[in-house]
Specification:
The protein is mostly helical. The chain has three helices and no strands. It starts with a helix and ends with a helix.
């Protein structure tokens, strides 16, 4: 993925979160997370990313 692709994706996620509002942001993120998980065939990668996200959320 190029830097431009990443920027487009970050912007789309930001716009989607703004569109659904704070009340439904968790649902959007959970749905997106599950959709992305099924695209990754290596469970270790998914579990490592979940752990990383959890650590970041606790700081």
């Amino acid at each position: 993925m190029t830097d431009q692709d990443l920027d487009r994706c970050y912007t789309a996620l930001s716009d989607a979160l703004a569109a659904v509002g704070e009340e439904k942001a968790s649902l959007l993120l959970a749905t997106l997370s599950l959709s992305l998980i099924v695209k990754e065939s290596d469970a270790k990668i998914v579990l490592d990313l979940i752990a990383q996200a959890g650590e970041l959320a606790r700081t």
